[in-house]
Write a structure and sequence with these properties.
Strand order of the largest sheet: 9-8-10-7-11
CATH superfamily of the largest domain: Periplasmic binding protein-like II
CATH topology of the largest domain: D-Maltodextrin-Binding Protein, domain 2
Number of strands: 12
Strand content: 25-35%
Structural class: alpha/beta
CATH class of the largest domain: Alpha Beta
Largest sheet: 5 strands, mixed
Oligomer: single chain
Distance between the termini: 75 Å
Radius of gyration: 23 Å
Helix content: 40-55%
Shape: globular
Number of domains: 2
CATH architecture of the largest domain: 3-Layer(aba) Sandwich
Order of helices and strands: HEEEHEHEHEEHEHHEHEHEEHH
Number of helices: 11
């Protein structure tokens, strides 16, 4: 009898194993979605009580809560967050430019708003003659310094396309974290760098780390940015809820009210 019970227990465990593995491999179906945030005001930052707030934080929270779900904000560097979205360990990112590479592992909802990249320079260089993208290589050669960019960031369709040309791309160098470009610029190691216009205006006005820097008049074309939803991180029902929530928030003006409050 004991032997039979042992054999029965072993058989049941073998039958259950594929079900456990299937559950582990399935996309997340819980009510909580992990959302990427970072110290990047005015889009994401902690308030006086230590809670995450900011324009994109509020937009993401509104989307997820309208879908009947709950956001769990987790701070991640940009490149690592994209990797976690790819493998499904994180479910939602905001402020994403839509690219073919990212479309392989992300669903898109949006646009949530529009973003524009600006050139940041030292105050003494704010009058540099730069009227278009074609002026950047000549400026770099004249000053014997390159322009700074961040890894895995899409800046604009035009600049992204030009950077695929090795002759043009030689005048740019990359860093892993956005604050490193400010350090390199203040140290005179680059002539300028590109970053979100609103974020840089905020940092220059409020953050001593950006003292002595200024927004140049040259900016890239505005581009729509989206909510990215991990294909491996959500199931079809969750995606449908988020898509429906987006339509409702656009229709009733909630998204625009949030955007207006931060302008």
């Amino acid at each position: 009898m004991v032997v039979k019970r042992i054999l029965l227990a072993c058989l049941l465990s073998l039958l259950a194993a594929p079900l456990v593995q299937a559950a582990e491999d399935a996309p997340a179906t819980t009510r909580v979605l992990k959302v990427r945030v970072a110290a990047f005001p005015p889009f994401y930052f902690r308030d006086a009580q230590g809670r995450w707030t900011g324009l994109d934080t509020e937009l993401g929270q509104a989307l997820i809560q309208r879908a009947g779900l709950q956001p769990h904000f987790e701070e991640r560097p940009w490149s690592r967050a994209l990797l976690e979205m790819k493998n499904g360990n994180m479910q939602v990112m905001m402020n994403l430019a839509r690219t073919p590479e990212r479309s392989a592992y992300l669903y898109w909802i949006g646009p949530e708003r529009y973003s524009q990249m600006a050139l940041v320079v030292r105050q003494k260089d704010r009058d540099l003659r730069i009227d278009g993208i074609d002026d950047l290589p000549a400026t770099a050669r004249t000053h014997h310094q390159n322009f700074g960019l961040q890894q895995h960031v899409s800046y604009s369709p035009v600049l992204d396309r030009r950077l695929r040309d090795a002759t043009f791309a030689r005048y740019f160098e990359y860093i892993s974290r956005p604050e490193l470009n400010a350090e390199k610029l203040k140290a005179g190691r680059i002539i300028g760098f590109f970053e979100d216009r609103d974020a840089m205006a905020y940092e220059i006005a409020h953050n001593p780390h950006y003292k002595g820097l200024a927004l140049h008049g040259f900016m890239l074309e505005p581009v729509p940015v989206y909510f990215g939803i991990s294909k491996r991180g959500v199931d079809a029902a969750t995606l449908q809820k988020l898509q429906q929530a987006y339509q409702e928030l656009v229709a009733d003006g909630t998204f625009q009210r949030i955007i207006n409050a931060w302008q």
